[in-house]
Automatic annotation (TrEMBL), chain A:
<comment type="pathway">
    <text>Phospholipid metabolism; CDP-diacylglycerol biosynthesis; CDP-diacylglycerol from sn-glycerol 3-phosphate: step 1/3.</text>
</comment>
<keyword id="KW-0594">Phospholipid biosynthesis</keyword>
<feature type="transmembrane region" description="Helical">
    <location>
        <begin position="143"/>
        <end position="161"/>
    </location>
</feature>
<feature type="region of interest" description="Disordered">
    <location>
        <begin position="428"/>
        <end position="451"/>
    </location>
</feature>
<keyword id="KW-0256">Endoplasmic reticulum</keyword>
<protein>
    <submittedName>
        <fullName>Glycerol-3-phosphate acyltransferase 3</fullName>
    </submittedName>
</protein>
<comment type="similarity">
    <text>Belongs to the 1-acyl-sn-glycerol-3-phosphate acyltransferase family.</text>
</comment>
<keyword id="KW-0012">Acyltransferase</keyword>
<keyword id="KW-0444">Lipid biosynthesis</keyword>
From TrEMBL, chain B:
<comment type="similarity">
    <text>Belongs to the calcineurin regulatory subunit family. CHP subfamily.</text>
</comment>
<keyword id="KW-0597">Phosphoprotein</keyword>
<dbReference type="GO" id="GO:0005509">
    <property type="term" value="F:calcium ion binding"/>
</dbReference>
<keyword id="KW-0519">Myristate</keyword>
<dbReference type="InterPro" id="IPR002048">
    <property type="entry name" value="EF_hand_dom"/>
</dbReference>
<dbReference type="InterPro" id="IPR018247">
    <property type="entry name" value="EF_Hand_1_Ca_BS"/>
</dbReference>
<keyword id="KW-0479">Metal-binding</keyword>
<dbReference type="GO" id="GO:0070885">
    <property type="term" value="P:negative regulation of calcineurin-NFAT signaling cascade"/>
</dbReference>
<keyword id="KW-1003">Cell membrane</keyword>
């Protein structure tokens, strides 16, 4: 006569043992059993089939249309070109403003109301085709029975099978991190301690990566950040840290949090020197820069990991890099990170979701597939200022990762745009009007009369 | 306004908006999702602050005036119907050839209605006339007080082309490049817009060129 509780406990123990032996231990040593590879391939096949099926279903239905059809008919062209077009028939002289000039700004204003380049970066990317997750479903229409069956199966697999597994892995990984770094922290300073601390960090992050079913492809490993350098990358989610730290050890920079994060941060810093700031210190840019500089100049310390955008962006573009970290005069190692949106939306919309619900969403996606490109190191050139250097690095990252390179500030997520940008537009207009006044042809123009 | 149903725009509403504005089904749903994403307060209407949150609009020198165009009659909130009605002015005129609806009312994106919209950008006090002050205000807004930029325009009489001194009171008329009179040569005459309401009912409003008084539509 078996007691149901003890039977359940036995099943649980068995399950835990399987998890530890077949997932945790291989993960710690960087060995893959190939299961996730097969899983991803199966997923790709299913999603491709689903895409074809949805497109076929949409064509059969009347009144259906592609969701991402453009709605603005762009004429394209700079302010100078379009102004010239508008003023062509009016033929004003240099410095003369014509009534129809307002139409250019009116048109641009309406275009930005319908679709602008900035606000869309702070919400999740629209998918070209549904990936069988409820959360990405925008125009749910019943297309076919098979598609619905797959979706139901997907829900069951993700919530019933994958979620408990991933939660268990995350718990194991984080507790191992706290325990391991605390133990290592008791050792005296030596190369042994550094080696052990790197081992602990690496194994923990590998376990956490498995806990998210993350498949990471690293490219150009020869450009991996070296000690004494600064690693900069585009920022999409806090998971970026896990992704990058799977392949090397970094010194983290950030604010000290309270609660669980604070415990993790404090134990991490015992074993290797991370740079944690109090909230008040973060406002003092000078203090931040000097601490970073001190870390970098001791060339034996781990490379610093910084996200210069300052906020999470939705991985379709790279916003302005804050120049603070580029003033430190170290070698910059740029890294481009690009997530594959078909398998799960990695973007953390901090205005919509808090950390816990975000992690739950992560753990109930299909998987996280990410490409990481290490770019060759860059240093500031003579005569270049920090802001220009920052945008040069940003363009390199955007080009490599296939992201849009925008000059807008990530702070626009929460704050207003500065007035100086409006003045820039006005200055551009004035110089266009003053320089591009079109010469009147011959004598057909009446001479100016005084009134 | 009903419950906060961000994805539920009823079919009847879509049909009504389609008839009124001429947008297609997919355009309406797309603009509706844009409307809801701008509506941070989630109450089904947009306020001026919601528009000002768009950075590209905030740096536009005429941004405030464009936002005002969405709020007629001094109201503070605009619902989706009003939003679409204003946007409908900017549909291409050629589209009207494709979907000829048999209603007798003039489509929102007719040439005259477009001009009326542009006219209202200048005419802040809504008295159907652009005064010299309003003209210069727009010039200052565009050029941020750069004194190298000035306004040169025609007087009330035919021929035009003269400069007028700053101390002359003047009621300016809106000149649109699309409505050049083919007869007048280089120094074109200024075109007077008759407000749609004053035209004879049933026929489209007439636009005349001052210099040669030929009807130009």
């Amino acid at each position: 006569m078996t007691d149901p509780v003890s039977a359940a406990a036995a099943v649980f123990q068995l399950w835990l043992l399987i998890v530890v032996f077949f997932i945790v231990l291989p993960a710690m040593f960087g060995i893959s059993l190939g299961v996730s590879g097969v899983y991803i391939q199966v997923l790709v096949r299913i999603l491709q089939w689903a895409t074809v099926r949805i497109q076929r279903g949409r064509q059969e239905q009347p009144g259906g249309a592609t969701p991402s059809a453009g709605i603005i008919e762009h004429t394209g062209g700079s302010m100078e070109e379009e102004m010239e077009q508008l003023r062509l028939s009016r033929r004003p002289e240099a410095g003369e403003f014509s009534l129809s000039d307002a139409i250019y700004f009116c048109q641009k204003g309406l275009e930005s109301i319908v679709e602008d380049q900035v606000t869309q970066r702070f919400s999740s990317e629209e998918l070209a085709s549904w990936n069988l997750l409820t959360r990405t479903n925008q125009n749910f229409q019943y297309i076919s029975l098979r598609l619905t069956i797959f979706w139901v199966l997907g829900v069951f697999v993700r919530y019933g099978v994958l979620l408990p597994l991933r939660v268990a892995l995350a718990v194991i990984g984080l507790s191992w991190l706290v325990l391991g770094t605390t133990v290592v922290g008791f050792l005296p300073e030596s190369s042994m301690k550094n080696w052990l601390s790197e081992l602990v960090h690496l194994t923990c992050y590998r376990i956490c990566a498995r806990g998210l079913s993350a498949t990471i492809h690293y490219h150009n490993k020869e450009n991996r950040p070296q000690k004494g350098g600064i690693c900069v990358a585009n920022h999409t989610t806090p998971i970026d840290v896990v992704i990058l730290a799977n392949d090397g050890c970094y010194a983290m920079v950030g604010q000290i949090h309270r609660g669980l994060m604070g415990v993790i941060q404090r134990s991490m810093v015992r074993s290797c020197p991370h740079i944690w700031f109090e909230r008040s210190e973060m406002k003092d840019r000078h203090a931040v820069t000097s601490r970073l500089r001190a870390h970098v100049s001791a060339r034996t310390k781990l490379p610093i990991l910084i996200f210069p955008e300052g906020t999470c962006v939705n991985n379709t573009s790279v916003l302005m890099f804050k120049k603070g970290s580029f003033e430190v005069r170290g070698t910059i190692h740029p890294v481009a990170i690009k997530y594959d949106p078909r398998f799960g939306d990695a973007f953390w919309n901090s205005t919509k979701y808090n950390m816990v619900s975000y992690l739950l969403r992560m753990m109930t996606s299909w998987a996280i597939v990410v490409n990481v490109w290490y770019l060759p190191p860059m240093t500031i050139q003579a005569g270049e200022d920090a802001a220009h250097f920052a945008s040069r690095v940003k363009s390199a990252i955007a080009r490599r990762g296939g992201l849009l390179d925008l000059a807008w500030d990530g702070g626009l997520k929460r704050g207003k745009v500065k007035d100086c940008f409006r003045e820039e537009q006005q200055k551009m207009y004035s110089s266009t009007v003053v320089q591009n006044g079109i010469e009147p042809p011959g004598s057909s123009r009446n001479p100016p009369e005084e009134e | 306004m009903g419950s906060r149903a961000s994805t539920l725009l009823r079919e009847e509403e879509i049909e009504e908006i389609k008839k009124e504005t001429g947008f297609s089904h997919s355009q309406i749903t797309r603009l509706y999702s844009r409307f809801t994403s701008l509506d941070k307060g989630e109450n089904g209407t947009l306020s001026r602050e919601d528009f000002q949150r768009i950075p590209e609009l905030a740096i536009n020198p005429l941004g405030d005036r464009i936002i005002n165009a969405f709020f007629p009659d001094g109201e503070d909130q605009v619902n989706f119907r009003g939003f679409m009605r204003t946007l409908a002015h900017f549909r291409p005129v050629e589209d009207n050839e494709k979907n000829k609806n048999l209603s007798n009312t003039e489509p929102l994106n007719s040439r005259t209605n477009k001009l009326h919209f542009a006219f209202q950008l200048y005419d802040l006090d809504r008295d159907d006339k652009i005064s010299r002050d309003e003209l210069l205000q727009v010039g200052a807004a565009l050029a941020h007080g750069d004194t190298r930029v000035c306004y040169v325009g025609g007087g009330g009489g035919g021929g035009g082309g003269g400069r007028f001194g700053l101390n002359v009171q003047l009621q300016a008329q809106l000149a649109g490049p699309a409505l050049l009179c083919n007869v007048c040569s280089a120094d074109f005459g200024l075109v007077q817009i008759m407000p749609p309401s004053s035209g004879p009912s049933g026929s489209s409003p007439v636009v005349t060129c001052n210099c040669c008084e030929l009807a130009v539509t």
